[in-house]
Amino acid sequence: MRKITFKIESRLDATPLLGQMVNALCSAAGLSPTDAGFVEVSVVEAANNAIEHAYLGDPNNFVEVSVSLAPDALIFDVFDSGKSADPDFVHSNHQGALSLSEETLAHASERGRGLAIIQQVMDSIEYTPGSGRNRFRLIKRLRAT
Amino acid sequence: MKIAEKQFGPNTVVQVLEQRLGADKAVAFKDAVGRVLNNGNPQLYLDLSQVEFIDSSGLGAILSLLKRMEKGRELIICGLTEPVASMFKLTRMDRVFTIYKNVEQAVSARTH
Fold first, then answer.
1. Distance, CA of B97 to CA of B93 (rounded, Å)
2. B83: nearest CB among A37, A52, A102
3. What are the start-end ranges of the E strands in chain A?
4. A1 and chain B in contact, CB less than 8 A
5. Lowest mean pLDDT among A28-32, B14-18, B103-107
6. Mean pLDDT across chain A, nearest whole number?
7. In angstroms, what CA-CA distances link A9 with A17, A40, A61, A77, B8?
8. Contact, A50 vs A136, CB < 8 A?
9. From CA B65, how far away is CA A139, in angstroms rounded?
10. Chain A to chain B, count of Cβ pairs less than 8 Å apart?
11. Taking a contact as any Cβ pair under 8 Å apart, which residues of chain A between 55 and 94 contact chain B?
């Protein structure tokens, strides 16, 4: 299994470069441009969550992203060393955040769609809190063409 | 946040001159376009044809602008690139916005 690791400072303006690298890797692995874009957004959302919720916006930390290319999947491990999230919350179904319609618009929140997007795009996710190192694993299966 | 503003009669076109509308730009985007919204134009055309990436924060910022529009005013989205259109669809945002292929088509449709 081939693997590459990126490390960015915990600043929101550091995530675009990470996203562009993820998109390029997805394209190289054979994902369509649309799927590569969706995966890029998902990994950026996971990194944003680490910056905003694990590090509470403190820019003096790092987010590490390891990308592993397995024969049948791309595996993204997003690591932070900040405050752990509740795994039950991360793994719960967030699809309700995407139930936008003209009827629900007035009450729709402008936040809270990141996990829903990740769940919608990725084939599986797994959040593992650790003492000093949390891991958010996102897996995208590669379909045979 | 770079935007360009153009008047079309009583209405305004705001073009976002950024390739990415993500969490790092969402607040600045809301502030910049929000200032134009305060002008009270009946219709605001938001041209996203330069934007190639949008995440949940960028989408949320656009949604917040829509929610700020009083009754009788419209926020019209124009020029979605393929990746941004895909995100609108994935998050069901395409259900609550009026979307046109480009500004010319939008202005023509809304003024005739």
1. 7
2. A37
3. 2-9, 62-70, 73-80, 124-128, 134-141
4. no
5. B103-107
6. 94
7. 11, 18, 6, 16, 43
8. yes
9. 34
10. 87
11. none
